[in-house]
Design goal:
Blueprint (H helix, E strand, L loop, with lengths): L2 E5 L2 E5 L12 H14 L4 H15 L5 H4 L7 E2 L5 E2 L2
Antiparallel strand pairs: 1-2, 3-4
C-alpha cells in the first residue's frame, strides 16, 4: 500500500510494492511491527516507511497462520506461536 506520512513539517511519500497477493491477514500488524522496529533502531523516516511497506507486502505473499489453525489446516497454534498437538 502506498502512503503519505506527515513528519517534521512535511509530507513524505512511500510507494507500495506490487506483489502477487495470497492472503492479506496480518499485513497491518506486520506493518506496525516493522514501523516500531525501525523507529527503535533509529532509522530515518523514509527508510522506516519503505521498510514497513516492504514487510507488509511480503506478508501478503504467503498464506497466513490463521489458515493453519482453521479446520482442515495444518494444526493449531498455542498462545506462544508454537504448533500444538492436533
Amino acid at each position: 500500500m502506498a502512503l503519505w506520512f506527515y513528519h517534521e513539517g512535511k509530507f513524505l511519500y512511500s510507494p507500495g510494492f506490487v506483489v502477487e497477493t495470497v492472503d492479506t491477514t496480518g499485513a497491518g500488524d506486520v506493518f506496525h511491527g516493522a514501523f516500531a522496529y525501525a523507529l527503535l533502531a533509529g532509522w530515518d523516516m523514509v527508510r522506516t516507511l519503505d521498510f514497513s511497506n516492504a514487510m507488509a507486502a511480503l506478508n501478503c505473499t504467503v498464506l497466513g497462520r490463521a489458515a493453519e489453525s482453521s479446520p482442515g489446516g495444518g494444526g493449531t497454534i498455542d498462545g506462544h506461536g508454537n504448533e500444538a498437538c492436533e
